[in-house]
Amino acid sequence: MKRASAKNNEGRFLADLLSPEARMFLGSLREFVDREVMPARRELDQEAREGGDGLLQDLLRKLHALGLPAGVLLEEHGAPGQEPTLALAMVAEEVSRGDASLFQAVAGSVLALRPAVLSGNGELLQHFSPHFERCEDGEHIYQGCFAVNEAPATGDILNVHLLGTNLGTRAVREKGRWSLRGDKVWCLNAGRADMCCVVASESPSRGREGLVLAYCESSAEGYRFLGRRETAGLLSASFGDIRLEGVRVPLSWRAAGPGEDAEILLDNLAFSRLLAAASCVGIAQGAFEEVLDFTSERLAAGKPIRQHSVCACILADIATSIQTGRDSYVCAARAFDLAGREERASLAMLSRSSLARHHCGRAAVEATNRAMELMGSYGYVTDYHVEKYWRDARTLQLCEVVPLQLKMDIAGGYYRLDPFHANPLYENMRRS
């Protein structure tokens, strides 16, 4: 079937943002998504429900061969290198247009290895980077997991005002090594990850100074996978829980050091929200293309549905939400790329990336909702993929960080939002 929205793909982005090489790569990636990912979306979901990942692994190998790494770009001999955030965000949108859970599988590895890249930890890079660079035909794709959340996973762990003070996971020094203990929940790539970057605390009373980003391998003694979470969407992404029962790793397997780990965590949180924002736009774009095709073929009163003014106005609303979302994440990602390390870890940058994520998540849910309404009963049957886009959009909107926490982080970029702000009225009432 000819894609009704195939025209003017490059016009979605400002010309100056894309080099000729980037345009060529995005074009190749778009062709790959149309050829390999679009026909496999239903099979990916079914495979995930049955507990398999053979098709996912095959697609990840093909993405690797195309030039998209399973982690951040690493230069020869493990020297730190970084793909610009904007370029990777554009990749996130394009892959998510086909299947968002496929990009989430890649993103899990990116977020896990990135702290070691940011810190320039040579030992970690020499140990892990060769696994991410190597990918032979039929070989298992090496994957990573960034373990942040803890039960009840409602956002407090990511509260910047409490950073490091309320972590249940401990990193204890024992005989010249770290001993990691605690449970992590809703971890992306859990169950299939080969390595893990764990957010823990050496001493909660020290706050950010006591926060530790420690690396371990899933084959290590004491590392337990507790099971996968059954989600409505993003089925192939594999969210799950892990337990660390005294996992021992070298002291040098800490990303950086006191205070620096907290800065890297904030940097990684802002980075992950930009990728999630772009992925939301990709989901909405995929649903838009589906509904454009549908409304071009279905007739009402003797002409295609989309030639009726009511339908055209709804399609215009969907297009507006998609393009404003795209402009939001592109601008924020560009600002992130141009910022220095200290600025990337600031509350202002976290606010900007959170704004993009919140807006794009809301836009994706609204776009898929309107697309389903236009298609009527065809919108929620699996013969078409709009229902999958809706499930993926809603799941991505809520995963990793709840919308209310996003709004708090957005507000924190505009004024000093202090949850411990003194309240004399409350103190007087308490005393009385």
CATH level 1 class label of the largest domain: Mainly Alpha
Low-confidence stretches: 1-7, 70-81
Return the CATH topology of the largest domain. Butyryl-CoA Dehydrogenase, subunit A, domain 3
Number of helices: 13
Which descriptor suits the 3D outline?
Answer: globular
Strand composition percent? 5-15%
The counted number of beta strands is 9
Number of domains: 3
Mean pLDDT, as a whole number? 88
The proportion of residues forming helix, as a percent range, comes to 40-55%
CA-CA gap between termini: 73 Å
| Backbone structural class | alpha+beta
* Biggest beta sheet summary: 4 strands, antiparallel
CATH architecture verdict of the largest domain? Up-down Bundle
Provide the fold topology.
Elements (H helix, E strand, L loop, with lengths): L19 H18 L3 H9 L4 H13 L18 H14 L1 H20 L2 H12 L10 E4 L22 E5 L2 E12 L6 E7 L9 E7 L5 E6 L10 E12 L9 H38 L1 E2 L2 E2 L4 H30 L2 H4 L2 H29 L10 H13 L4 H9 L12 H8 L1
Parallel strand pairs: 1-4
Antiparallel strand pairs: 2-3, 3-7, 4-5, 6-7, 8-9
Helix pairs in contact: 1-4, 4-5, 4-7, 4-8, 5-7, 7-8, 7-10, 7-11, 8-10, 10-11, 10-12
Structural commentary:
By secondary structure, the protein is of the alpha+beta class. The protein folds into three domains: 11-133, Butyryl-Coa Dehydrogenase, subunit A, domain 1; 144-256, Butyryl-CoA Dehydrogenase, subunit A, domain 2; 261-411, Butyryl-CoA Dehydrogenase, subunit A, domain 3, CATH 1.20.140.10. 50% of the residues lie in helices and 13% in strands. The protein contains 13 helices and nine strands. The strands form three sheets. Strands 2-3-7-6 form a four-stranded antiparallel beta sheet, covered by helices on one side. Helix 4 runs antiparallel to helix 5 (100-119), helix 5 packs antiparallel against helix 7 and helix 10 runs antiparallel to helix 11 (386-398). The longest helix is centred in the middle third of the chain and has 38 residues, at 260-297. It is globular and about 80 Å long. The model is unreliable at 1-7 and 70-81 (pLDDT under 50).
